[in-house]
Amino acid sequence: MIPELDYAFYVWTSYGLFAVIMVWQFIQPRLRRRRILAELREELALQSGNYDDPNA
Amino acid sequence: MIFHRLKVGFHRLGSPPTFHKLCRVLSPWLWAGFLLCAAIGLYYALYVVPPDYQQGDSYRILFIHVPAAWQAMASYVIMAILAAIALIWRIRTVEIMTMAAAPVGAAFTALCLATGSLWGKPMWGTWWAWDARLTSMLVLLFIYLGIMGLYAAFEDRRKGARVACILVLVGLVNIPLIHFSVEWWTTLHQGATIRLLGESRMHPSMLPPLIWMTIGVKLMFGAAMLDRARNDLLEQDRRKNWIRQLIGESA
């Protein structure tokens, strides 16, 4: 199934780098959005007095 | 009539809630398009096209390297157009899009340099040469990083974006330098193989994966830029009512 290539190390490293960068570009903004939304929800809860401190 | 509608549509994009909605709706379609194009492109690149008679399988690296290089430059040109619009009309959402394009463009530039190096070692016998094409591409990476750094250095994000937009326009001078470097100077890097005008020097059987991958990375650039722009907008407008309503709806 996996093709046997000449210069396999160079070819597969290139394709691997491509995959890693594409996955990172997909995941990183989603992780950041999740963090921003969590902060905003926390701020809103604090302002409305519905904040349950997870460390309490 | 059509011009008027276009003008109204363009101005609506300046509204943060409309822009946020547009990013949310468009991004998944662009990612899906990228996945489809990349799947077809990678299948052709790894399973269908034959090895090169001189380079063997190492030339398959170009199906990553060339689309990444084209996209690194295309991203910069798009960023420069957006920067000009942002500076002239002072549209905040366009400023945000300009700044969101920089990390994606930088990623493509880094990928282009890394895959070029991985091809250069077996073919040229060296990981790196200070020739005009490679050096100007490295300069492009530094310009991208400079724009990101400058934007991040300002506490006032709008001021940071405007200053960084000026740097984007100044850095545009590097794009023709990259493109014509192989013609103006004697370089280790080969000249243009694919030509939009005129005959390409690449065998037609090798073109389909290149075309699929090129379309794929363009879609991916759009998707990643919109994802980042959406986040920047959320962060900047965190005290605004439309964000609070949005959080309230999603809770």
In summary, what is this structure?
The complex is a heterodimer of chains A (56) and B (251). Chain A is mostly helical.
Overview of the molecule:
Chain A has 56 residues and is mainly alpha-helical. Chain A has one helix at 8-48. Chain A has a domain at 19-44. Helices cover 73% and strands 0% of the residues of chain A. Chain A is rod-shaped. With 251 residues, chain B is an all-alpha fold. Chain B has a domain at 59-193 and 202-239. Chain B has helices at residues 2-12, 16-48, 62-89, 92-124, 132-153, 157-171, 174-184, 207-236, 241-250. In chain B, helix 2 runs antiparallel to helix 8.
Summary tags:
heterodimer; A: 56 residues; mainly alpha; 1 helix; 0% strand; B: 251 residues; 77% helix; globular
Strand content of chain B: under 5%
Distance between the termini of chain A: 54 Å
Low confidence ranges of chain A: none
Oligomer: heterodimer
Strand proportion of chain A: under 5%
Q: How many whole angstroms does the radius of gyration of chain B measure?
A: 20 Å
Task: State the share of residues found in helices of chain A, binned by percent.
Answer: over 70%
C-alpha termini separation of chain B:
41 Å
How much helix is in the residues of chain B? over 70%
Secondary-structure topology with pairs:
The complex is a heterodimer of chains A (56) and B (251).
Chain A: H1 8-48
Chain B: H1 2-12, H2 16-48, H3 62-89, H4 92-124, H5 132-153, H6 157-171, H7 174-184, H8 207-236, H9 241-250
Helix pairs in contact in B: 2-8, 3-4, 3-6, 3-8, 4-5, 4-6, 4-8, 5-6, 5-7
